[in-house]
Structure formats: structure tokens, C-alpha cells
Amino acid sequence: MSQRFIAAIDQGTTSSRCMLFDAAGAIVAVAQKEHRQIYPKPGWVEHDALEIWANVEEVIVGVLMKAGVTRADIAAVGITNQRETTVVWEKATGRPIANAIVWQDTRTDRLVAELGGVVGQDRFRELCGLPLATYFSGPKVRWLLDNTPGARAAAERGELLFGTIDAWLIWKLTGRHVTDVTNASRSMLMSLKTLDWDDSLLEAIGVPRGMLPVIRPSSEVYGIGRGVLEGVPVASALGDQQAALFGQACFSPGEGKCTYGTGSFLLVNTGERPVDSASGLLTTVGYQIAGEAPVYALEGAIAVAGSLVQWVRDNLGLISAAPEIEPLARTVSDNGGCYFVPAFAGLFAPHWRSDARGVIAGLTGYVTKGHIARAVLEAVAWQTREVVDAMAADSGAPLTALKVDGGMTANGLLMQFQADVLGVPVVRPAITETTCLGAAYAAGLAVGFWPDKATLKAHWRQEAEWRPSMPAQEREREYRQWKKAVERTLNWVE
Would you say the pTM of this structure is higher than 0.70? Predict the structure, then answer.
């Protein structure tokens, strides 16, 4: 076959996908497979890293078969991943020493409080851009070393390797122990200014440098694939939200996007210097192309978005499939006074309260399952509003429109409500799978499949737009009610 393609592996919180893209950035084929969510204790969330790898191999083979192509037709492969999920494995055998600790997991809450000491959660923020929180991977590594028999001694002897999922997959594909700047910036172990592991952070958090991967740009050939991708350059890695920023072609300062997936994540490009947040946002690396300066971003991370719909489906049984949430919510005209704050693993941006737990507030005998369904969707939009307000406070520039992507953007009721509570248009691109697209774009740039970012930006097309229709007075009244519900979640865990 004369035509060539770029492959992207999207290893997410609930499933692994492989997608093929053509030279126009259009999707050629997709293969996907879910993996188990393991909940050993309340607040603990784990994945089996070997199951994830087996699923990744399967979807790679599956997408090639669907497209009717071979490895020889793939110019490069990029990787995007659930970011802070932590794997530690044996260097000699490749066997993980325990299940991966997922980004949502809260078992490090006591360790995080201990690390904060008298300074509190901002102890390391100036160096790494992050507050001390259970979210990030550095404390998760420390927990594995402290709680897995023999692990710390093995790590000190150089026998163990740590990586987030990108590094695990790159190692399985190429044998090289590499991560990229975006994933490293989520560890609490990397200096935002040097883009290297910081010795003072490593010592304070308690992670041996020898188990850490080499940090490289997001768009660069890391190695040549083996096995199912024999001979294919592995040429990019981006944490999933940074990949979506790249896929939405947010290449200029001030451009941003919100991705609605398991969680919800708003990122805004801040240019070639990190911007400190005074409003509860994360300072992070947006992306780096080999040979170019890094591009930084501000991020508002919301832990629970699409996973709340899954919870309503699986734990409450109000719906039998996720798309049913919208028609159920449309059976009522409003939330009936009901507000759902899904602080299942504490509150992320802009609150960063690990002591919070979820509440449904405002219940009366009038409330039906339709009202609860509507409150579920509204919760996603209100959490996003909180982050948008924090962005405006930090940047001094109010939002004029919101680019959106991810699975939940198929929900028209949610998108309209999002526009209503923000008071600005919400815009969805023609390709909503921007996480995969971003990884593909970065890999394609690394091997010359696409010549430059301007070519990528020219691919972006708008598919749908929602304009606000809610009166401002109603919007602010409802927002006050939401904030009251958020207050009810606090100080739950002692």
C-alpha cells in the first residue's frame, strides 16, 4: 500500500485504544478494549499493568486488521496515557511488583499530609508547580516502596524501575526507559524550570533517582518498536490532557480546551514560561517538540466527570448504558433543587481538599431519578465553571469561548448547560478524539509525516457550537446553590 498512516495508542483510565490517522488527520480505524477497575479498599483504585499491556497489544493488532494494513504502512506511533497512574516493575523480568496505583487513588493521604509538614500542601509548589495531593505519582511510588516487602532495598540496588503508563508502554515496545516532560511534570519529582528530576524533591519524597526514566521531549523518536510494532518508530508521548491540548491545535498562549472523560480537564497554553497559580490550578508542561523550548500550561483538574455517569449506571442502576443519562435528564425541566457534588476521592481544582466526600444536597420528596440525572450532568458543568473562574483570576483574561472534546461532548444537554453556566459559546471540533489526535500529531512531526504545526492547525474544523441562553441572574443564583452544596462535602474525612 502506497499510503502511510500514523498510529496512536491511547491508554486511558477505563480502556486502551489504538487509532490510525491519515495525512489529513482523519480517523481511519479504531480498536478498543476495557480493562478491570480494581478496588481493594475504600479510596483505593488499581489496575493490572500486565493486563493493560496485553490489551494494548490486542488493540494494535485489531486496528491494523480493521484498516487492512500492516506494520510497514505505519510511519510512526504516538502514545497518550492516563497520567499519574504509577507502575513499578522489576528491571530484569519486567514483572510489576504490585498493581498499578491509579491517579484517582487516595491511599497516600496520610503520607501527603506528613510531607506537607508545617508548610502544608504548597511545600513543593514553587519547584514542581503542584500542590501536595494524592493525585500525583511521586507519593504513589514512595507508598509502593514503603509497603511492598523488599521493594525499597531492591530500588536502592537499581533493580526496580518506575514509570507512569507512557514509560511502561515505551519500555514494553522498545526496551528503553523513557518518559516525556508532560508526564514527568505530574510526578512532583521534576523541576519545572530544569525539566529534570530534582534531587531535593527526590530526597524529600523518598524516591531513588536510579529507578526513574530519562525525561525527553513529547515529540521525538524514543526507539524502534518490537513485537506487534516491529520496526515502527515510537515517536511521541503526551499525558492525555496535554495530548488533547495539542490535538485541539492550541499552539498559541491563551488558547485552551476542556476534555470531558473519566474526569474533566481544562488546560490553557501559557507560552514558554511557567505561570504560578494563586487560584488552585496546576502549573504543568503543555508539550515540548524536540529542539524547541517547552510550552507550559495552567490546568484545572476535576476528578469525576464521565465516571459519575458510570457510577450512576453501575452502582445505582438508574440507567443501563451511559447515553441514557441525557434522555432521562430531559424528562424534567430543571434539577428540582437537587445538587450532586461527586467528591468521591476528595475535591481537585480549585479546592484540593482530600478530606471531602460526595454529597447529594437539596433532596425533597419532589425529586425523581430524572432530577438526579440532571444534577449529575450539571455537576460536570458547575465544576468546570469553578475552574474557568480560577483561570480568569490567574490569567486576568476572561474566557471568550471554550473548545471542548471527549466522549461527554456527545451529550447536547450537558454542552448547552455548560454554555449557559459559563456565559460563553462552547465549541466542538469535527474530530472529538483529540487525545489520540494529539499523540498522532506529535509522532507525525517527529518523523516528518507532517512538516510543521501550521499544517496541523489548518486541519482543525468546528462541528458544533452551543450559545448561552440562561439569564445571568439565574446563572449566578444557581451557582450560589452549587457552592453551598460544595461546602457540605468538606471536613468529612477526619
Answer: yes
- Nearest CA-CA partner of 242 in 117, 124, 79: 79
Sheet holding 233-239, edge to edge: 27-34, 15-21, 5-11, 74-81, 233-239, 219-224
Query: Are 295 and 288 spatial neighbours (Cβ–Cβ below 8 Å)?
Result: yes
Element (H, E) at 282: strand 282-287
Backbone angles phi, psi at 109, to 5 degrees: -60, -40
pLDDT digits (tens, 9 = 90+) for 257-310: 998 988 898 998 989 988 888 888 889 999 999 999 999 999 998 989 999 999
Of residues 417 and 493, more confidence is placed in 417
Q: What share of the chain is helix, strand, coil (3-state, %, to 5)?
A: 35, 25, 40
Q: What is the CA radius of gyration of the chain?
A: 22
Task: At 288, give phi and psi (nearest 5°).
Answer: -145, 130
Cell output for 437: 489526535
- Beta bridge mates, 162: 88
Name the amino acid, one letter, at 109. Answer: D
The pLDDT tens digits for 110-157 are 999 999 998 988 899 999 989 898 989 999 999 999 999 999 999 999
Q: How far is residue 265's CA from residue 11's CA, in Å, rounded to a whole number?
A: 17
For residues 346 and 348, give the distance between their C-alpha atoms in angstroms, rounded to a whole number: 7
Q: Of 151, 45, 2, 26, which Cα lies nearest the Cα of 440? A: 26
Q: Which letter does DSSP use for residue 99 in this model?
A: P
Element (H, E) at 219: strand 219-224
Measured CA to CA in angstroms, residue 85 lies from 45, 291, 404, 412 at distances of 10, 28, 24, 31
Q: What integer best gives the mean pLDDT of the chain?
A: 94
Report whether 336 contacts 369 (CB < 8 A).
no
